[in-house]
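Is this the right way to post structure tokens for a design question? Let me know if I should format differently. Anyway, here goes:
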């Protein structure tokens, strides 16, 4: 029997756009109360206007651990618990490693790795205390296979996989689940940073998924019965060869 998300308290980093916003939509549709943790105040207000009073906005600087802690404390002060942490925020850098900009690498690595780790960590303490909770981190198919076009991004997602698998073992005795969702290419603003020829070929060839595909997978992971963990969920568009 699947679990209900009715009135469960969720926090979604990067929830004001792209995959995160679609996941917020579907969480709300499933009955959850959702806190968007993002830096884009205007986008969060648009989401609240669209989705109603079950959506709350918390401004956060994901590059600062203290800001993430404050954001989660805001949720806990208002609701008394946190049932779901979806550590979704991320960015993209592709291209040949020897041609890369190390400063761009650092910014992406800080967001894709450190911010995700910190977001998961601050959720662990209240979830352990309440004896339940779900942490899901947006990884990528690049976390399980090396994607030649994006070595630094691939490295960041391999780090997510290692973190998720080790934390899963640590958290299991406390009744807290953690898993990674690993989509292939999705039509989001991140693909604006792709090589133009690669982006054009993917869009015209139909080798892309929609944010709704990822959101539906997230809902599936969160609604598994107590005692069942979806460790990894890989999503690929038809014809995507890895």
């Amino acid at each position: 029997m699947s679990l209900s998300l009715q009135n469960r308290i969720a926090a979604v980093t990067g929830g004001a756009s792209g995959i995160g916003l679609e996941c917020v939509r579907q969480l709300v549709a499933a009955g959850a109360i959702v806190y968007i943790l993002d830096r884009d105040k205007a986008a969060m207000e648009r989401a609240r206007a669209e989705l109603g009073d079950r959506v709350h906005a918390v401004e956060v600087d994901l590059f600062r651990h203290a800001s993430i802690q404050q954001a989660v404390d805001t949720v806990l002060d208002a609701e008394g618990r946190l049932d779901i942490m979806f550590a979704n925020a991320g960015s993209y850098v592709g291209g040949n490693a020897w041609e890369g900009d190390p400063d761009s690498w650092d910014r992406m690595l800080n967001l894709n790795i450190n911010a995700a780790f910190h977001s998961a960590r601050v959720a662990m303490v209240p979830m352990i205390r309440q004896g339940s909770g779900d942490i899901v981190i947006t990884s990528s198919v690049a976390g399980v296979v090396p994607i030649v076009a994006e070595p630094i991004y691939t490295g960041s997602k391999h780090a997510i996989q290692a973190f998720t698998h080790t934390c899963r073992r640590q958290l299991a005795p406390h009744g807290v689940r953690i898993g990674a969702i690993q989509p292939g290419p999705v039509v989001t603003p991140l693909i604006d940073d792709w090589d133009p020829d690669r982006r054009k070929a993917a869009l015209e060839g139909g080798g892309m998924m929609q944010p709704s595909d990822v959101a539906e997978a997230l809902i599936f992971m969160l609604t598994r019965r107590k005692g069942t963990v979806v460790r990894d969920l890989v999503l690929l568009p038809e014809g995507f060869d890895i």
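Format looks fine. Someone answered above. Worth noting: The helical segments are 18-29, 41-51, 65-79, 102-130, 151-171, 196-205, 211-222. The first helix runs from residue 18 to 29.
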